[in-house]
Amino acid sequence: MFKRTALTLALLGATAVSQADVLTTVKPLGFIANAITDGVTETKVLLPVSASPHDYSLKPSDVEQLQSAQLVVWIGEEMEGFLEKSIEKLPKEKVLTLEDIDAIKELVEHDDDHKDEKKDDHKHEHKHEHKHDHEHGHNHSHDEDWHIWLSPTASITIAEQIAERLSQQQPEQKAKIEENLANFKTAMVTKNGEIEKQLSAVKGKGYYTFHDAYSHFEDAYGLKSLGSFTINPTVAPGAKTLNKIKKDIAKHDAQCLFAEPQFTPKVIESLSKGTNVGVGQLDPLGEKVEMGKDAYPKFLQSIADQFSGCLAK
Ligand SMILES: [Zn+2]
Question: Cα–Cα distance between 194 and 214 in angstroms, integer?
Fold first, then answer.
């Protein structure tokens, strides 16, 4: 009797492992995870490519995915408030909350200091936007940029964390996981060098991004953002911001306005009309980048190409 139970449990265990996967919220986190899970387990992404983490609501099938994953990787409630309640119900050993990691916290808080200097004039509008955070079911604090998947530095920390957790869960795969992590780090050193070189040509050129998502990328490669249309992509840009953008276009300080595939505001068309400001598109969620073990460096390259494609003109 006892033997039979043990055998049944072993079989159930084996089934559970073969169906398990690392589940990330947004696709670029999936790119990082995929580099580590290659040959070890599967990587899945919760949000559909066309969805934004800023205005997403969970479906019943999403809850099932969360429950069946061996490890759920999310940024945290600051960025993904829509997940908070479902995550709380999962066993702690199955969840990796990136906003709780010291190195990530430091990166976000450090960037905060220097954003305050350059973005003082946005203060009032942000306070107003915060009041709406709850109704819209998300949090998008302006002082802290939680789009950490756009940080080459954070991506290394994230990869290390996933590798550590995965090694705990599958100790027999530790060597493969470590090899994957080492390969990821090597690929990132190469990619960083290439992007630095590519973007050094457009360093002094001013631009506006659609929403405040790129500060980590900009800081890493020395790009000169003049600001964003909106801090929170679900809130329309304020009149004061639009006037400033108009002035910067007239003075030729702004060379490009960047839209995003998830949000296509008419305001960008109307502001650019009759001026020589360029209009580009930045895809912070890597819609067109295919999943795979080399996807993350390709994703960073796609962002670099999108910046330089407009700014280098
Ligand atoms: Zn965002």
Answer: 19
Instruction: Report CA(78)–ligand 1 centroid distance (Å).
Output: 11
Distance 289 CA to ligand 1 centre (A): 18
**C-alpha dihedral (129, 259, 268, 121), degrees to nearest 10:** 40
How confident is the model over 59-84, as pLDDT tens digits? 999 999 999 999 999 999 999 999 99
How far away, in angstroms, is 230 Cα from ligand 1 center?
10
Neighbouring CB atoms inside 10 A of 277's CB total 22
Whole-angstrom CA distances from 61 to 46, 53, 66, 98, 148 are 10, 17, 9, 23, 26
Beta bridge partners of 230: 211
Whether the per-residue pLDDT at 19 is higher than 80: the answer is: no
Q: Could you give the residue ranges of the DSSP H alpha helices within the chain?
A: 2-19, 27-37, 60-68, 84-88, 102-118, 123-132, 152-169, 174-199, 215-221, 239-250, 266-272, 295-311
State whether the Cα torsion 131-240-310-273 is positive or negative. Answer: positive
pTM equals 0.85
How far apart are the CA of 211 and the centre of ligand 1, in A?
6
- Are 199 and 307 in contact by the 8 Å Cβ rule? The answer is yes
CA 145 / ligand 1 centre spacing (Å): 8
Å from CA of 231 to ligand 1 middle: 8
Predicted confidence (pLDDT) per residue in 41-55, tens digit:
999 999 998 888 888
Q: Which residue has the tokens 């964390």?
A: 161
Whether the CB-CB separation of 158 and 29 falls below 8 Å is answered with yes
Q: How many CA atoms lie within 13 A of 94 on its CB side?
A: 17
User: Are 197 and 165 in contact, with CB atoms under 8 Å apart?
Assistant: no
Rounded distance from Cα 111 to ligand 1 centre (Å): 16
